[in-house]
Automatic annotation (TrEMBL), chain B:
PROSITE patterns: ALDEHYDE_DEHYDR_GLU (PS00687). The active site is at E266. It comes from the Bacteria. This is Aldehyde dehydrogenase.
């Protein structure tokens, strides 16, 4: 296994000035992580109540949320047909009459990426051609990660080869649960190397890590290993993106940024279905990490149904009438 | 602003709470609110009003009635009229009333929250999410106590009419903390809200009347400090409950001295916020925000002294400054505001003065970059002073504003020492991921409430209140209920109790009166030395002179004065001599008490000592009985009974020593809220003449059992029972300093102890005038005072002379909150 620091390739169109190159594993730092769960839960519980965005601000923030969405379909029955529909929605996430009404027609609102299994990558790449919207592939034996390491590397390489610009890997939960931080570090280093120019999002599957301290430590190790993003969940665990978990990960990102100067992105995924919850996540980003983490280069929302609710809220803002989902184009 | 622009800037924008209904409520009552007596709004007899303003804008909101003495009289009279019926109302019926109040608060939650924010300037988020829900919670919780009163507080009864004075920082919440337990216990109330913030009290009284609370049960008199003083001094009030500044509390202590009024005081603080190097620092930063920037820092238990372990201090303060940059100060009605308006311009000036003086002392001050761009109005930015030495004014004085003073420490013991280096003792916050260390610090810090890895958590199920100059008494929980109850003894008011078949000693008003004894008993001793009695060993030899000394620090000590005082027997002959103790002897005794290892011993170990005391006393039963007999001339069998009762009492407190540790509170929080019954510290005990041995032990033993060190002054007339007893102490493994006995002029010594700032509580049995002087002198350090002789007790009666009441007086409740993973 190699631990050398990789060169820093960039991907045009993603707006990333500089990728996190990673740093040598610093176990002292990892073990210093302290997370007090009740205190974190208290902060997470009051955060959405401490800030409120209303009227035009709410509409603008919801548009911003759309631009952070990794529009996702990860189902056993995915076919080229429904993936092409998803990609069409990704290009035009909001009805144009609504965008015009909001004065947002020229903002070039699209989602941040489309996220699919490897088998659908080429379909999505084709469907999104010319849009500038990258395709993300979940990988490394998603969602459980219980496949041989070499197959994980092969899967990454295959997806990158098929045109995926972003790879969402899953970490080996066992490495975290057993405190095998060096093994986790090496594993993620190799995933990063296999990604090449594609961006690496590391899914911690926080619902299976047992403690928030594990979440904090795993976040640090993944960033040290060169993750471009750290991501909460696969969407397949019984508990997915929660604000307390997000808070711990955001604080880890802030710590890492403070210590190394490298900015790592954050992606909550799973269970984010309402416009209100997307605002909560944006508020968490703004409060804990600052305005630099409100855009797609450092913030993503992994979601599928969320978009429809945001559309309904935008229409309500525009018309003052409560909206119906069927009046918005489905995926 | 255009959506496209906001899309780029991602600012928050305004999020105002609609104030329409609250403004309509005010308009319907313009130009002024009245007083609220007997469920009716009435104009004040003075015809005068004070303007209540919105501190965020300066706009006048409505007039507040200024109650005069006739109004206070009328309010107390209304409460008195209602008192008997309300006390007799079955607990279940009172529970229904309190339940209705809780429901009504919830139904009118937003109106109350908006009124509060308009009047006080606190952020709507806080009044909406904290104040008002906690108000409802308090009434729900106390509806429960009303329901359970007859069983859970059997043997207790309501005090009568209670005068309650609440501050401006949590106007409605403090009302609830006071009114709910008072009503649950069966008292009627005259409430005086703060002059800056009276609106929600009147609104609440209206709601309560509409909810069917009987007339006179809750009355509201508004006005300024003069109105409050009238209530405090009103002869028709049985108790004063006050929350506010330490200085005003001190004044109330003095002005109620000798009045017989019960008193509870919840006063100021300078609470420590302790961050150990193994804490979750980011969460601790958020804790600081909740500790000192909650309610603009206008919180009595605000964590205003930040103590950070030196190794992580720089990094912690860096994180804290980053966090301070993102705080938002402004319109309290905006839902996205962290810090609202300071309550009034006068308070703003006080804060500015303290901050300016700290700056001119050369202490390093930091405010966020936006601090210079505050909105117009009564606003002050979050402010951090770092490297603040304990000697600085800003480290000692309660600012009552958004101002934090940070200091570093090296070790846990230094952190505890710094935390305790204050006249106050209200609350503390301890941050560490090491549960053992955190709990150890929580035990060692002197405060009524300690939050572990949390701050400013409140609940009706856990009593809140302080020690030292933060006052005494608790609000909330079982411990808070006792503030509004008194023991109910059958036949409580009586001059004498006849001896029962079991030979129990009568309390006789004449028992201590030496004028009518000698002849009746007919023991004609010529020189005060032993004659007759159990062992008629009258010798032809002169007796050996016995010289009781003072007992200080485990040693017999000659009195500093060099004088002795004569002690007379019942037959007026000289029974002996005791040392004439003075203030220096008491100083030494208090120092010895503080040095005693007693408080650190386990309950089990303390029990062993108390049992051993009883054992050794029993060996000398005859000797003590004979001494008692000679003191007050009672029959030998009664004297023997007193000794036997004393032995029994020692057994009782030996039994209690490991059985009054506290309880787990039912707070709505995952984790543990533990009410720990801690010793108070050094307790002064001043006894009177009745039952000289039994009373002395009845007072000293519970104090000892709970881990206090005692400085005892035995009765003037019969000190020999106590001085004889120290020989028993000496043979019973009582550690040095645990009990100290100083004889002499009781009134003089009581005054010295009451005025001693290192004595935490004083129990006084004696004259009303003596009680008044003790209460007056106690205002210096606001020590707890218990007038044991009010009402007179039958020391032989185990209900009156022993038990839970004594244990409660011997302890203070510390609620330790330990949130655990949810």
């Amino acid at each position: 296994m190699t631990t050398t620091i990789l060169p820093v390739p960039t991907v045009p169109g993603l707006g990333l000035e500089e990728r996190n190159p990673g740093i040598p594993l610093d176990l002292g730092w990892v073990r210093e992580v302290r997370v007090n769960r009740p205190a974190v839960e208290r902060r997470a519980a009051t955060l959405p109540a401490r800030r409120s965005v209303k009227r035009e601000w709410q509409a603008a923030w919801l548009l911003r949320a759309i631009t952070a969405i990794d529009l996702t379909t990860l189902a056993g029955d995915d076919t080229p047909g429904n993936v092409r529909r998803l990609c069409a929605k990704a290009r035009r996430p909001v009805r144009s009459d609504i965008l015009e009404g909001l004065g947002a027609a020229d903002l070039g609102i699209t989602v941040a990426a489309v996220c699919v299994y490897h088998n659908l990558v080429s379909t999505a790449v084709e469907a999104l051609a010319g849009s500038g919207i990258p395709v993300a592939a979940v990988s490394t034996g998603f969602p459980a990660g219980q496949i041989p390491h070499r197959l994980k590397l092969a899967e990454i390489e295959a997806s990158v080869g098929a045109g995926a610009a972003e790879i969402d890997i899953v970490v080996s939960r066992a490495r975290v649960l057993r405190g095998e931080w060096r093994d986790l570090y090496e594993e993620v280093r190799e995933f990063r190397a296999a990604c090449g120019p594609a961006h690496l999002k590391t899914i911690l599957a926080t619902g299976e890590l047992g403690t928030l301290r594990n979440v904090g430590m795993a976040s640090l190790v993944c960033m040290m290993a060169g993750a471009d993003f750290i991501k909460t969940s696969t969407g397949k665990e019984s508990v997915n993106a929660t604000l307390p978990v997000g808070l711990v990960m955001a604080r880890a990102i802030r710590d890492y940024h403070r210590q190394t100067g490298h900015a790592v992105g954050f992606k909550p995924a799973g269970g984010i279905r309402t416009a209100k919850s997307s605002l909560d996540w944006l508020i968490l980003m703004k409060e804990e990490l600052g305005d630099g983490w409100l855009r797609a280069d450092r913030f993503r929302l992994g979601a599928s149904g969320l978009l429809t609710d945001i559309e309904r809220q935008l229409e309500h803002h525009l018309t003052g009438r409560y909206a119906a989902a069927h009046r918005h184009p489905m995926v | 602003m255009q959506i496209a622009e906001i899309f780029e800037t991602m600012t928050y924008g305004p999020a105002p709470e609609a104030a329409g209904p609250a403004r309509e409520w005010l308009a319907a009552r313009a130009p002024a609110l009245g007083l609220f007596l007997d469920n009716r709004m009435v104009p004040p007899s003075t015809g005068e009003h004070i303007e209540s303003t919105n501190p965020a804008t300066g706009e006048p909101l409505i007039g507040i009635a200024r109650a005069g003495s006739a109004d206070v009289d009328a309010a107390v009279a209304a409460a008195r009229r209602a008192a008997a019926d309300w006390r007799r109302t079955p607990g279940h019926a009172r529970a229904r009333h309190l339940y209705a109040l809780a429901r009504q608060v919830q139904k009118h939650a937003r109106l109350l929250a908006v009124l509060e924010t308009l009047d006080n300037g606190k952020p709507i988020r806080e009044s909406r999410d904290l104040d008002v829900p906690l108000v409802a919670r308090h009434f729900y919780h106390h509806a429960g106590w009303a329901q359970l009163l007859e069983t859970e507080f059997a043997g207790y009864e309501a005090l009568g009419v209670v005068g309650q004075i609440v501050p401006w920082n949590f106007p409605l919440l403090m009302l609830a903390w006071k009114v709910a337990p008072a009503l649950a216990a069966g008292n009627t109330v005259v409430l005086k809200p703060a002059r800056f913030t009276s609106i929600t009290a009147v609104a609440f009284a209206e709601i309560a009347a509409r909810a069917g609370l009987p007339p006179g049960v809750l009355n509201v008199v508004t006005g300024d400090g003069q109105t409050g003083a009238m209530l405090v001094e009103h002869a028709g009030v049985d108790k004063i409950a006050f929350t506010g500044s330490t200085e005003v509390g001190r004044g109330i202590r003095r002005s109620t001295a000798g009045s017989g009024k019960r008193l509870s005081l919840e006063l100021g603080g300078k609470s420590p916020f302790v961050v150990f190097d193994d804490a979750d620092l980011d969460s601790a930063v958020e804790g600081v925000v909740d500790a000192i920037w909650f309610n603009q820092g206008q919180v009595c238990c605000a964590g205003s002294r930040l103590l950070v372990q030196e190794g992580v201090a720089a990094g912690f303060l860096e994180r804290l400054r980053e966090r301070m940059e993102t705080l938002r100060v402004g319109d309290p009605l905006d839902k996205g505001i962290d810090i609202g308006a300071i309550v009034a311009p006068s308070q703003l000036e006080t804060i500015r003065g303290l901050v300016d003086r700290a700056c001119s002392e050369g202490i390093q001050m930091w405010q966020p970059s936006w601090a210079c761009a505050l909105p117009d109005g009564c606003f002050f930015p979050p402010t951090l002073f770092s490297d603040v030495p304990p000697a600085a004014e800003i480290a000692r004085v309660e600012v009552f504003g958004p101002v934090l003073a940070a200091t570093t420490f090296r070790t846990k013991s230094e952190a505890v020492a710094l935390a305790n280096n204050t006249g106050y003792g209200l609350a503390a916050s301890v941050w560490s991921e090491n549960v053992g260390m955190a709990l150890d610090a929580a035990r060692a810090i002197k405060a009524g409430t300690v939050w572990v890895n949390a701050t400013n958590l409140f609940d009706a199920a856990a009593g809140f209140g302080g020690l030292r100059e933060s006052g005494f008494g608790r609000e909330g929980g079982r411990e808070g209920m006792y503030e509004y109850l008194k023991p109910r003894w059958p036949g409580r008011v009586r001059a004498a109790v006849t001896a029962t078949a079991t030979g129990r000693e009568p309390i006789s008003e004449a028992a201590g009166d030496g004028s009518q004894d000698g002849a009746a008993n007919g023991h004609g001793a010529s020189n005060g030395r032993a004659t007759g009695g159990f062992e008629a060993t009258v010798a032809s030899m002169p007796p050996i002179d016995r010289t009781p000394k003072l007992f200080v620090g485990g040693k017999q000590a000659r009195p500093d004065s060099g004088y002795s005082r004569l002690v007379f027997a019942a037959d007026s002959t000289v029974l002996g001599e005791v040392g004439e103790g003075n203030r220096k002897d008491l100083r030494n005794a208090v120092e010895a008490a503080h040095a005693s290892p007693w408080g650190a011993m386990t309950g089990h170990a303390r029990a062993q000592v108390l049992y051993y005391l009883a054992e050794n006393l029993s060996l000398r039963t005859r000797e003590f009985a004979e001494r008692l007999r000679r003191m007050d001339g009672r029959p030998a069998e009664v004297a023997t009974t007193e000794v036997e009762r004393t032995i029994e009492r020692l057994f009782a407190y030996a039994a209690w020593a490991d059985k009054f540790g506290g309880r787990v509170q039912g707070t709505p929080m995952p984790g543990l809220t533990v009410a720990v019954h801690e010793p108070i510290g050094v307790v002064a005990v001043v006894a009177d003449d009745t039952c000289p041995l039994l009373q002395f032990v009845s007072l000293v033993a519970p104090a000892l059992a709970m881990g206090n060190a005692v400085v005892a002054v035995p009765s003037s007339r019969h000190p020999l029972a106590a001085t004889d007893l120290y020989q028993v102490f000496e043979t019973s493994d009582v550690p040095a300093g645990a009990v100290n006995v100083v004889t002499g002029n009781v009134d003089l010594l009581a005054g010295v102890l009451a005025g001693h700032d290192d004595v935490a509580a004083i129990w006084y049995a004696g004259s009303d005038d003596g009680a008044r002087r003790v209460e007056l002198e106690s205002a210096g350090n606001l020590k707890r005072v218990w007038i044991v002789s009010r009402p007179r007790r039958d020391w032989f009666d185990p209900v009156q002379g022993e038990g839970e009441e004594f244990l409660r007086e011997a302890t203070q409740v510390k609620n330790i909150w330990v949130p655990a993973a949810g």
